[in-house]
Amino acid sequence: MSDELPLELRRLDVEAADLDGHSLEELGDYLDRDRTPVDPSIEASAGCQLVLQAMTRLRATTRALIDADIAAAPAPSESWVQQILTRIALDARAGRRIPFVHPSPTADLAITEGAVRGLIRAAELDVHGVLIGRCRLDGDLATPGAPVRVSVEASVLWGERVPTVADRLRAAIRERLVAHTDLDVQGIDVTIRDVHRLAGTPEEDRS
Amino acid sequence: MSLVPEELAAELDELVRRIPGVATIYRPASLAEVVTAARDALRGSESALVQVGDADGTLAIALTIGVAGDSAAGATCRAVHDAIADRLGGYGRDAAITVTVAHVVE
After folding, report:
1. How many Å apart are CA A58 and CA A189, to the nearest integer?
2. Burial class (CB in 10 A: 0-12, 13-18, 19+), B44
3. Contacts of residue B97 in chain A, CB cutoff 8 Å?
4. Which of A33, A174, A178, B39 is most buried (most C-beta within 10 Å)?
């Protein structure tokens, strides 16, 4: 499936150890096979699941990009898509443990930084056409209640009003963080690095 | 009461998977544990993914879970802890319980 894409999604150098011994290429092949036969080693790996989830969203968007009228405008650069894939893989690393408070002194409850970055990336689902690249959490994540700042870089659809998209993305990220973490998010910085075009984008919106 | 670690791990594995919001239990992350899991997969067997051990004389339970996207990760994490603590309390045992959310499944 991905072999049909002009954008080569496979040539990446990411440490297999970050993905419990699996490579991005293996995970790409696994998606090509519609996750069959089921690979218990991949299915039981949180890192692999984070990558597969993000890769599925990215593929859906890039496929629409390939279907677009590329005669009217150049396709997004291969390097940019590779950058996103690399960030996805790097973000899948567990990273720091972000605690959940519990009254028991023997309870040690937390969500991983990798899971939180996955949550942030999944905000793509709420803002049509947005692709999130770099994603960073700044602050003392290990201390409950400490102020935290989130920074993301993203690409938006050609013709969309950038401030509006940034506001929607910021709101979607905040909603997910409030729902799933105890983080005290002081701010979410959204930097739009690029624009891209999807199939069916009206010509008048492209100016 | 003496608890057999392997049996307790299997019991807690089953208990945790029934808790609302828990989508899955992930394989432990250390290399040795990954090798064990891979060996089990090759043999067609599957060991419990809840780790049961001893930390300075205290029973220690550790597990890594995936949480369903429509459930709150924090609440689910606490529910898992409380369910395990309740079960162990029934055996008259306390434990250090470590629960980590590694993925919110959407």
Report:
1. 22
2. exposed
3. 104, 106-108
4. A174
Per mean pLDDT, which of A6-15, A58-67, A100-109, B44-53 is the most reliable? A100-109
pLDDT band at A206 (very low <50, low <70, confident <90, very high): very low
- ipTM score over 0.90, yes or no: no
Residue A6 burial (10 A CB sphere; 0-12, 13-18, 19+): exposed
- Between A21, A108, A111, which is nearest B73 by CB? A111
Question: Structurally, how many domains does chain A consist of?
Answer: 1
The model's pLDDT over A28-56, given as tens digits with 9 standing for 90+, comes to: 889 888 898 988 888 888 888 888 888 88
Give residue limits of the domains in chain B: 5-105
**Tokens in use for B8?**
């307790």
Q: Which of A20, A119, A181 sits opposite B74 (nearest CB)?
A: A181
What CATH number is given to the structural domain containing A136? 3.30.70.1350
Note if the pTM is more than 0.80.
no
Asked if B55 reaches chain A (Cβ–Cβ under 8 Å), the answer is: no
The C-alpha of A84 sits at a distance from chain B's nearest C-alpha, in angstroms, of: 19
Determine the residue of chain A that is closest to B100 in CA distance: A110
Cβ-based contacts of B99 with chain A (< 8 Å): 107-110
**Dihedrals φ, ψ of B35, to 5°?**
-60, -45
- Do residue A182 and residue B74 have CB atoms under 8 angstroms apart? yes
Topology classification of domain B5-105: Alpha-Beta Plaits (3.30.70)
